[in-house]
Amino acid sequence: MIEARGVVVRAGRATLVDGVDLAVRGGEIVALFGANGAGKSTLLAALAGDRRPAAGSVRLDGRDVATLSPRELAARRAVLRQSSSLTAAFTALEVVRLGQPRADDGVARRCLAAVELAGFADRIYPSLSGGEQRRVQLARILAQIDGRAGAALLLDEPASALDLRQQRLVERIARGAADRGHAVVVVAHDLEFVARCADRVLVLRAGVSLADGPPLDVLTSQLVSRTFDAALELERTPSGALVVRPARDEPPTLGA
After folding, report:
1. Is the overall model pTM greater than 0.90, yes or no?
2. Which is the CATH superfamily of the domain at 26-36+70-198+211-246?
3. Fewer Cβ close by (within 10 Å): the C or N end of the chain?
4. 239: alpha, beta or left, given left = phi > 0 and alpha = psi -120 to 50?
């Protein structure tokens, strides 16, 4: 389990996350949902142990992440960050192997196949498209937790730069990880992605938690409008999916 208690994160005088509580158990997918600047990625960084809270604590399996060494953290959680600064001329296979505690080409190739890049093992990473690089990074963290029981999988906008088919692939991968007993936390601002993928959603606005619960229970037109500072309406399709639209009385955009 990964648990945050009263987490506060500051940058100078600005409070980016303000007293947030969250508990995610193995087998569960929790989405951090909100507008840009709501504190989602900052909270994820605190959960990962990459950013130390000014107050409160984060625990992985009962241990404060501040007390864990980098090796211990790597054994307990895998992080897909929002962007990668890797520019070295590694092959895709070598990038995936970076996530492994022990190099295993068989596992690395299997993880590339899981993200539908089986034929890309020898491709040079910087030459790949943004979406392809994103999937290589996803394969890297899958390799990191391969064979481990009950790790935390922390995904920051995992579907960014991906087309609709690949977004569904990410959803299946996240669900598969949860079904294998991992605790999965996903940063997202795509309402439909959250409704399809998450068991629970923590809604953030200006670093403050507004709601925590099953998406179809807590996501309302009023809450989403408040989250994005815009007049929005939610509609539920016959299949149970959520669709967000501008409110009917919202003035038209110039040029529309």
Report:
1. yes
2. P-loop containing nucleotide triphosphate hydrolases (3.40.50.300)
3. C
4. alpha
DSSP calls for 68-118: --HHHHHHHEEEE-S-----S--BHHHHHHTT-SS--HHHHHHHHHHTT-G
Q: Provide the 3-class DSSP secondary structure of residue 242.
A: strand
The whole-number mean pLDDT for each consecutive block of 10 residues of the chain, a chain of 256 residues, reads 97 97 97 95 97 97 94 94 87 95 93 97 95 96 92 94 92 96 94 90 97 94 92 84 78 45
Sequence ranges of the domains in the chain: 26-36+70-198+211-246
Nearest to 80 by CA among 187, 191, 193: 187
The distance between the two most distant Cα atoms of the chain, rounded to a whole number of Å, is: 58
Terminal-residue alpha carbon distance, the chain: 48
Distance separating alpha carbons of residues 134 and 136, to the nearest angstrom: 5
**Encoded tokens for 215:** 């998406």
Residue 127 has a pLDDT of: 95
Element (H, E) at 246: strand 242-246
